[in-house]
Sequence to fold (81 residues):
Amino acid sequence: MAGVDWFNKAIIYHILIDRFAGFESTKNWNKPEFLGGNIRGIIGEIAYLKQLGINTLWISPFYKTSAYHGYHITYTTLNCV
Fold:
């Protein structure tokens, strides 16, 4: 399959945004509550990830959510004209 060769060389690192970087918190990581990790925190760690050999990021959803991991997406209906 053309166009998927990159995947054969991918070193994928999955990031749960809320738990990775971008927050200063003394909250307990073992509790299901928001810690405050963010995209800027991930950007700040790109050099570190490259040093590890990571060349592909799989980032958890970053929609409005009711859970720290991002997979309980909530939404509102938009009125389109």
